[in-house]
Amino acid sequence: MVFDTIKNGIIPTSAFKDNAGVLAAASTWVMWCTKHSAHVSSTYSLISAVAGVGVATAGASQVQWGWNGGKGLGAVFAGLGMAPAISAGFAGTIFILIKLVVHLRHNPVPWAVFTSPFFFLIAGTICTLSIVYKGSPNLGLNKKPSWYVAAVTMGTGGGVALLAALFFFVPFIYQRVVRKDQGVKCYMFPLGPLLFRRAVVAEADHAKLPNYAVVQDDDASKTRVSTDAGSDSDGDVKTPHIRGDNEKALTMTETAEIQKTYKELRAEGQEKVLFKMRAERGPFGWAMRTLHDNPTGPGQVYERDNLLIIAKRLPAMVVAGLLYGVHYEIHAAQSGIAGTLEGERMKRVYAQAKKYPDEVVHTYSFVQVLTACTASFAHGANDTGNSVGPWAVIYSA
Q1: Burial code of 135-159, b = ≥16 C-beta within 10 A, e = fewer?
Q2: Cα dihedral sign for 117, 119, 120, 125?
Q3: How many Cα atoms sit within 13 Å of 242 on the Cβ side?
Q4: Where are the beta strands (DSSP E) in the chain?
Q5: Per-residue pLDDT tens for 298-310?
Q6: Which of 148, 229, 362, 386 could anchor a disulfide with 240, C-beta 3.0 to 4.6 Å?
Q7: CB under 8 Å to 138, separation ≥6 — which residues?
Q8: 172 vs 121: CA distance, rounded Å
Q9: Cα–Cα distance between 228 and 208 in angstroms, integer?
Q10: Crossing angle of helices 108-134 and 367-396, rounded to 10°
C-alpha cells in the first residue's frame, strides 16, 4: 500500500519525463534525520518530499492533493487523525473490559488467568484482520468476500484462544501466578493440561515475576550514609551523617564534584541493567560475563592477542545475540534514570497512576506478544515500502 501510494498515488510518473533523477532528493531529509537520530516519520517525510519534488518539477497541478482513491495526499494526511482515533477506540474498549472483568474484582489474579483466552481471541482477531487488509496485494486477501474475511479472522482468533485456554497458556500461567510454584520453568508450557496435576515443588508467598514498576527501587540509588558514626566526648552515640537532597552541609565545590551529567547517569543506568544480566545463571549469563571480561585490546584486530580474544568472544557473541532479547529487562531499562528530569517526571506521573498486581500485568503481557508480532510485521512492510517506493518511481519514470 505504501509502495503503491508513493509510486503512483501522489503524482503520475509520466510527469517527470526525462528528469527522474530529481526524485533522489526526496530521500535527503530522511537520510539526514537518520544520521543525526532525529525522530521523524519516514512515511510522511518521503510522501511530502515526493510531492514537493513534483511541484518543483511538474507543477502543483500534477500533484494529487485530494483523496484519489485512498492514495492521494488528502487520504494520507487524513490518517494522521484517523489512525490515533481508531487506535484509541480499540485500546479504550479493551482496557475498560479488562478493568470491569478483572481489576475491580476482590481477587483479580484468577480472573485474569481464566479470562485471558477471551482477550487472546480479541487480539488474534484484530491482528488477523489487520494482516488480511494490509498484507501483500499479490495475495488478494482484501478482495475476498466478506464472509470469507470474517471466517478467516474469527477462525484464527478462535483457534488462538482455544490453544491458549486448553494447551499452552492457561495451565502454565495458573501454576505460576495462582499456585505460585517457583519450580515451573518456561520450557514446561508444552505440557499443557498436565500442569494442572503437577504438585507444587517450590511454593512461595509470592509468584516469581519480573518487576513491572515504572519507577523501580534500587539500593544503589538510596540515600548514602557515611561511616563517620561514633561517640562524642560525653559517650553518646553520634547520629550517622546523612547526605540527602536537602543536606545543607555540602559546600558548593563538593556539590559540583558529585553532580553528574545526564549522559553519565544514563550510562550508569544501562550498566545496572547489564550487571544484572551478567549475574544470571545459564548460557546467557556466561556469554555476557565472557564479553565483559574479554574486551579487545589496543592495536589492529588481526594482531595475535586480539585474534585470540576474538576467538574467545565469538561463541559468547552468538549466544548473547540469540538470547539478549529474552533476558533484556525492558522495564528496568526504561524506568527513568534517577537524578534526571526524565526520572523525576516519570515518578510524578506514576505516583498518580493506580497500581495493579504484578500477576495481572504478567498475565496480559503474553497477549502483547501477538500485538508486538503484528506491529513488527506492519512496520516492516511499511518501511520496505518507504525504501523501495522512491526508487520504483525513478525506475518507472
Answers
A1: beeeeebeeeeeeebeebbeebbee
A2: positive
A3: 6
A4: 224-225, 242-243
A5: 777 778 888 888 8
A6: 229
A7: none
A8: 18
A9: 39
A10: 20
